[in-house]
Amino acid sequence: LILDGVTYELPVLEGSEKEKAIDIAPLRDKSGYITLDYGFKNTGSTKSAITFLDGEEGILRYRGYPIEQLAEKSSFLEVAYLLIYGELPSQAELDQFTNTIKSHTLVHEDIRKILDGFPANAHPMGVLSSLVCSLTAFYPESITDRSKEQVDLNIVRLLAKMPTFAAWAFKNSMGHPVNYPKNKLDYCSNFLHMMFSLPVEGYEVDPVVSDALNKLLILHADHEQNCSTSTVRVVGSSKASLYSSVSAGINALWGPLHGGANQEVIEQLDAIKADGGNTQKWVEKAKDKNSGFRLMGFGHRVYKNFDPRAKIIKGACDQILNKLGVNDPVLNIAKELEEAALNDPYFIERKLYPNVDFYSGIIYRALGIPTDMFTVMFALGRLPGWIAQWKEMNEQKEPISRPRQIYVGATLRDYVDV
Ligand code: MLT
């Protein structure tokens, strides 16, 4: 790195040493070569104190707490509080946070009328992003009032209404009437109630299902600045409301390369099953460069060894399917594929390990959640991360985002009359 005429030799950092990479941040800030440019928001040049990832070591921490511990011990709202406010809440703080959220779960009836306007074949993600965006119109003070009290109110309102919107998007796709929130239930159970009560007469939320959902949402709660999260920060940097910014993030997540991945996994597993379930055949096909075939759910842009979330999800998947007595043959296919790949030099050399999307779809299906809703479930989980990132970006007073552009088009041309 050459800075002000002085050459600096930058160390190649290994493993946990990467945490020290922050030491060179002042150099990056000043350098014209590696630019700390919030406007461009390249992954290598943005700062955040929310989520730590080490792709070589397979480490994921929210605010310093390992994901394994949070998934084991916390509730989703506890993790939401941690991500958004930086500390785990005391019991009193958590109770207050939870109760405030419960007091905002209802949605204005005029928003329900917007829902009524969507055709039943509207994708639930389109419905979700539209309903979230409509909150800016229903609560215009979310743009004009930037006081801490108002921001906190916007945050709880969004956390509270998101499960209602998500369940209503599902109900719309089924052509069924909506269920209203039941505030005596916890966050996950209330969502399940809105999803599955009526037409199932006397539906009772199974605590096993609710616990499984709690874990899945925690595992998806943040993942540093990827496509959707950067989108939330970029849109928010124009001082757009939290609701508009998160709505934009939902649209970014909707794309098949981002949130749509677990849907692709389950469709592929189904196709392998329909083909007779010979996993070795598909492993060989994936290795054949000319086949154009790729095993979905293997490898990750960030994780080069394994995705720590995948390990937890695999364990949860076994547990949940056992407890619910669900026998989904694609689970065995998934396990066989994993086994075959993890022992095959081709996959080992390329560090292609199952990622978070590999098992999550199987769990969602066991819980009775249809494939079209998988991305919505991802959005529900990712919400606290988006909120935390939007808040951090505002608190850091980041300037409006504006990518640096290098013009590569035609040079000056004279207009010639024809
Ligand atoms: C995520 O959890 O957001 C995905 O793994 C995508 C990513 O972080 O790049």
Automatic annotation (TrEMBL):
GO BP, one example?
Answer: tricarboxylic acid cycle
Gene3D superfamilies hit by this protein: 2.20.28.60, Citrate Synthase, domain 1, Cytochrome P450-Terp, domain 2
Instruction: Enumerate the GO terms in the molecular function aspect.
Output: citrate synthase activity
Q: Which residues form a coiled coil?
A: none
Q: Name one Pfam family in it.
A: Citrate_synt
Q: Which reaction does it catalyse?
A: oxaloacetate + acetyl-CoA + H2O = citrate + CoA + H(+)
Protein's pathway: Carbohydrate metabolism; tricarboxylic acid cycle; isocitrate from oxaloacetate: step 1/2
What does the record give as the active site? H300, D357
Q: Which family does it belong to?
A: Belongs to the citrate synthase family.
Protein name, please? Answer: Citrate synthase
Q: Which organism is it from?
A: Flexibacter flexilis DSM 6793
- What are the top taxonomic ranks of the organism? Bacteria, Pseudomonadati, Bacteroidota, Cytophagia, Cytophagales
